[in-house]
Amino acid sequence: MDEREFKGVSDHEVRIVNRETMTIKGVLHVDSSDDQEIVLDTDLGLLTVRGEDLQIKQLNLDDGSFSLDGAISALQYSQGGGSRSKAKGKGFLDRLLR
């Protein structure tokens, strides 16, 4: 991906400490979550976090912050999901209640 594609995107930040805790800035909503995989829609596309005993500790969609605990084994970004084309705040519940 080209850096020019993300002009106008707020600061996106991922911080992992000892592969046990993770904080992310720029989360739009959580697509799915279980103890082995969490899929997040972020400013920069879908982010899949894989591991064991993953637990969401904090989610604030107003400021786009998210944190989790668990044994983190992989992160993967993909372009799917249309993060930048969706209206902010459209998430799992909005799709469920359609």
What does this structure look like?
This protein has 98 residues and is mainly β. It has one domain (3-80, 90-96): Immunoglobulin-like, CATH 2.60.40.2000. It is built from 1 helix and 6 strands. The longest helix is centred in the last third of the chain and has 5 residues, at 92-96. It is globular. The termini are far apart. The model is unreliable at 82-88 (pLDDT under 50).
Concise description?
The chain has 98 residues and is mostly beta strands.
SSE topology sketch:
Elements: E1 13-17, E2 21-25, E3 27-33, E4 37-42, E5 45-60, E6 65-78, H1 92-96
Structural class: mainly beta
Radius of gyration over C-alpha positions, nearest whole angstrom: 13 Å
Low-confidence stretches: 82-88
* Separation of the first and last Cα atoms: 33 Å
Task: Find the CATH topology.
Answer: Immunoglobulin-like
SSE topology string: EEEEEEH
CATH class: Mainly Beta
Q: Count of helices?
A: 1
CATH architecture: Sandwich
User: Could you estimate the helical fraction of the residues in percent?
Assistant: under 10%
Strand content is: over 45%
Biggest sheet strand line-up: 1-2-6-5-4-3
Which whole number gives the mean pLDDT? 83
